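User:
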Amino acid sequence: MTIASSSPPSRLPSGGAAEARSKPRTRRIEAGENRGDGRLAAVFIAPALLGFVVFLLWPTLRGIYLSFTRFNLLTPAEWVGLDNYVRMVNDPIFWDSLWVTVEYVVINIGVQTIAALAIAVLLQRLTQSAMLRGIVLTPYLMSNVVAGLVWLWILDTQLGIGNEIISAVGVDRIPFLADETWAIPTIALINVWRHVGYTALLLFAGLQAIPNDMYEAARVDGASEWRMFWRITMPLLRPVLAVVLIMTVIGSFQVFDTVAVTTAGGPANATNVLQYYIYGSAFGRFQFGYASAMSVALLVVLSAITILQYRLTRAGRTDLG
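Assistant: Predicted structure:
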């Protein structure tokens, strides 16, 4: 009688078993590496986060609280509710300062944006010399206080070289910083001179992202430089231009240094911008609660303007495919 031999039980390939055993270990290693990367990232972020909390978040929250109090540094803060905001709404100097600030912002942003865009296009279309870019950026390396003092001396009605030149050509001397009509435009142009190079380089960086193929195709079709500027450059530069406008508008509303060293809010409050009025209320009259209320109002205004600008300019979208 023949006995049928049974076949031996099948076994998994040795390679597959080893791979199955190694997967949990690989996952553990990857999880450990991720935790290590997270700790390293936290170490690098910690100094910036600490600075943000100490110098931005906490002062903002503290200022919002003080805006509902009467506080003069000498006595404890006294809760007064909305009294500071009611006073602000009925304060004619506050509204005058806000109007002066808006006038400054319109002149500064209008002139600076047009001049910076022209410089950026010229740098891109005519030359990309690093030396020229350095020369354009030079005024930005000067502080606002130094720039204000330099132009204060240049534009001095009696001894300034600017008025000496004006007088030499037969024109009456102009009190640039001592006349109510000239003061705000002069301060705006001083800050345009200082910041236009930096703004131009930001726009120049945006122009570098536009493909040259588009310009070459437009030239083949016979498009002029002016037509290429409006049909190619401006639409594709829009996201960068929008971000630059948001940054410059926020910075312009916070003008203080140039006013403080040139006119100190005069003549007759003609340059009493909102930041300078807030400073005078806090450190001149020790009305920290009222100054905090005006600061909160400025924060709300800037937030609303930023959101409106972002949506109107479609800063988060690009026409580049």
